[in-house]
TrEMBL record:
GO terms for molecular function: transmembrane transporter activity. It comes from the Eukaryota. Keywords: Membrane, Transmembrane, Transmembrane helix, Transport. This is Major facilitator superfamily (MFS) profile domain-containing protein.
Length: 468
């Protein structure tokens, strides 16, 4: 009898080891099929969204006859549809497929970027930026939702960060392209060459993503039957519903769930710094050097360093399964950077100011990758997840409006009110993030004690616990 028990235990161990090997193989295959396309998508998203900041240093305002705060108004008009269309895009992604929606949106904003070359006045550039904002609104919420079709909540964080590296690389590449084309002499202005080159890259990326990225594990020809069954089993750890139907009852319940709005408030707070760094980094660096061409070249360093910091922070978050603590502790560094950049006299110490841009770029973006993953991890229905993610990114993009109007022409070149605003909103984010974490800690204690038998929506998984 004892020998039989030992044999059964040995067979179980072999079975578990075999399943672990298959899981790792499935994960590697999924990474190979999914991540390259999304990396291309986010690279083009950042390239086209932030290139207006580079173009400003090449005299775009003068060439188009912009006066007063019309440049800031351009950013505001971009962020209005950028915020309003997040939820509709995620609903469409739930109904049709995130990959289809992302590819379509990329193609549209790439065409808009190239069309910006033909603008000759404020009205022309305004029209292209409004359409571009509506199209770019699709990407980020659909990206995170798309990843939940392939990965469990414990695996998404580092993948979002890997994709996020392309944003920093795009910032560095855009700075390098700008530094090069702004010295060209030809029939076009330097910023027009910039828009043509970056828009062409974007349209090519849309074609690649549409034809080569999988629509999902079950619909993909690249997975075997066994891998599809294992993938379905893995995803059941996070949700008990895995079809394409949009459930209005789930959407309504999610909107009535107060943490949905708490996450949106967090996004509103960290979004001010994210938008400010994306749109005004070349302008802030231009304050530290009289060479406007070199100002774009100097954006490369902060973006590349930020890439390393970002992947390290999100890897730590995944490793420790601590979303709120990592997001709130790291943002302290960028908070100090924003405040010091706005209050120190940097004209005689430009190297100190340049160092501060490394802190700002390196730590401002960390919550924007971690918080949506935290949100998605705590929403058990795919419909609720799509709605909540759309609302989260809508709030973050509304923050871009606040950022745009805070950088007023009369405050140049230091922009003290805008920089202090970035620091204050990050401080509020830190406090609110820790409060929300304690709420989930309290819920987990009730689940552990049996006071609450199971998490709502996860009746079939009594061992489910909320991410913190």
């Amino acid at each position: 009898m004892a020998d039989s028990d030992r044999d059964d235990k040995h067979d179980v161990e072999i079975s578990q080891a075999s399943e672990t090997v298959v899981r790792k193989r499935l994960l590697r295959k999924t990474d190979f099929l999914v991540l390259p396309g999304l990396c291309i998508a986010y690279f083009t998203n950042t390239l086209d969204r932030a290139n207006l900041g580079n173009a400003k240093t090449d005299g775009l305002e003068t060439d188009l006859g912009l006066v007063g705060n019309q440049y800031s108004l351009l950013l505001v008009l971009f962020y209005v549809p950028y915020a309003l269309f997040n939820v509709p895009w995620t609903i469409a992604a739930k109904r049709f497929n995130p990959n289809v929606i992302i590819s379509l949106a990329i193609g549209v904003w790439g065409i808009c970027t190239m069309a910006s070359t033909a603008a000759t006045n404020f009205g022309g550039i305004m029209a292209t930026r409004i359409v571009m904002g509506a199209a770019e609104a699709a990407y980020k919420p659909c990206e995170v939702y798309y990843l939940t079709l392939f990965y469990t909540r414990r695996e998404i964080g580092v993948r979002v960060s890997i994709i996020g590296q392309m944003g920093f690389i795009a910032g560095a590449v855009s700075g390098l392209i700008s530094w090069s084309v702004f010295r060209w002499t030809g029939g076009l202005h330097g910023w027009q060459y910039l828009f043509l080159i970056e828009g062409s890259i974007t349209v090519a990326g849309a074609v690649i993503l549409f034809f080569f990225a999988p629509r999902g594990v079950q619909a993909s020809k690249w997975y075997s039957r066994g891998e599809k069954d294992l993938a379905k089993k893995r995803l059941a750890e996070d949700t008990e519903e895995q079809d394409n139907r949009f459930r209005w009852n789930d959407a309504k319940a999610q909107l009535l769930h107060w943490p949905t709005w708490a996450y949106a408030f967090l996004a509103l707070m960290y979004g001010v710094g994210v938008a400010s760094s994306s749109n005004f980094l070349p302008t802030l660096i231009k304050r530290l050097t009289k060479d406007t061409v070199k100002a774009n070249l100097y954006t490369i360093g902060p973006n590349l360093v930020a890439s390393v910091i970002q992947i390290s922070a999100t890897w730590t978050s995944d490793r420790l399964q601590q979303r709120a603590l990592v997001a709130s502790s790291t943002i302290v560094v960028s908070l100090l950077g924003w405040i010091l950049l706005g209050t120190l006299d940097l004209e005689s110490h430009p190297s100190v100011g340049y160092f501060l841009t490394f802190l700002i770029t390196g730590f401002t973006f960390i919550p924007s990758n971690i918080i949506p993953v935290w949100l998605a991890s705590n929403v058990p229905t795919t419909t609720g997840r799509a709605v909540a993610l759309g609302l989260n990114y809508m709030a973050m993009n509304i923050a871009g409006i606040f950022s745009s109007v805070s950088f007023r022409a009369q405050d140049a070149p230091v922009y003290v009110p805008a920089l202090v605003t970035c620091g204050v909103t990050q401080g509020v984010f830190m406090l609110a993030c820790l409060v929300l974490r304690q709420y989930y800690v309290h819920l987990n204690k009730k689940l552990d004690s049996g006071e609450t038998p199971c998490a709502p929506g996860m009746e079939g998984r009594p061992d489910y616990r909320y991410a913190i």
